[in-house]
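Posting this for the archive.
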Amino acid sequence: MLSKLGPAGILGFLLMLGGIVVVALENLIIAAGLAVIVAGLGLVVFGLVKNLLSSLGMGGMLS
């Protein structure tokens, strides 16, 4: 998975994870909510990209 992200993607993931950790130090419930929101956003983006690629005839590239 990490090889598909590239350096910018890995840095972005680490910054996002660090931000959730900083919030978790203050309040665990809010940090859990933010983690769920980020995971949901990732699934929405994945779905959009998958639909876009399938509409262009490249749907087999993502599984």
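The mean pLDDT is 84. Residues 50 and 62 are 7 Å apart (CA to CA).
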